[in-house]
Amino acid sequence: RKSIQVNEWSKCWNHSKLIMTEELAMIYDEFKESNQKSLNHLENELVKIRAGKASPAMLNGVMIEYYGSMTPLQQVANVNTMDARTIIVQPWEKPLLNDIARGIINANLGLNPQNNGEQLIIAVPPLTEERRRDLVKRAKAEAEHSKVGIRNNRKDALDMIKDLKNEGLSEDMTKDAEEEIQKITNSYIKKVDELLELKEKDIMTV
Known about the structure:
Blueprint: H1 2-48, E1 63-66, E2 69-72, E3 77-83, E4 86-91, H2 97-106, E5 114-115, E6 120-123, H3 129-166, H4 171-204
Antiparallel strand pairs: 1-2, 3-4, 4-6, 5-6
Helix pairs in contact: 1-3, 1-4, 3-4
């Protein structure tokens, strides 16, 4: 009879351990997903920070008034580079030329589009040393913002693990889970540093 009880207890314990393991896997997945969002956001913000070379991505944040609603530039025009210093914007409808020019100026990108009646030609001015340093500062601020997001995500994940501990997660499993969360945190912080390093190099390359 005793062995039957031990057996039952052992089954229950294994079942609850399995449930806890599944819960932890969900916490890790959610944590990675939140961190990936922070990383994607950083990538988008860094793209907007102009390095010296002309790139269609410089105009990614530009919105145009199109039939009464604000629309991303890429949905109303083709944006290409003619060379390392020139961006060409070809609207799908010619009457949009002035609206697009206004949208680019309002976006405060320091770009001055020239309208030749067919398309907009944007000469990308070379960056001064001082401007480059400002842009690096801005890139660093974006990276820091991203790291804060990752650390906040870590706090949320650790809180969830704490809840599981209160529900019966063992000391050992709790410790392993906390270490796993830290490992994931470190890997995403490293990715942020790598993105920043690439952007700095891009900005400082004359």
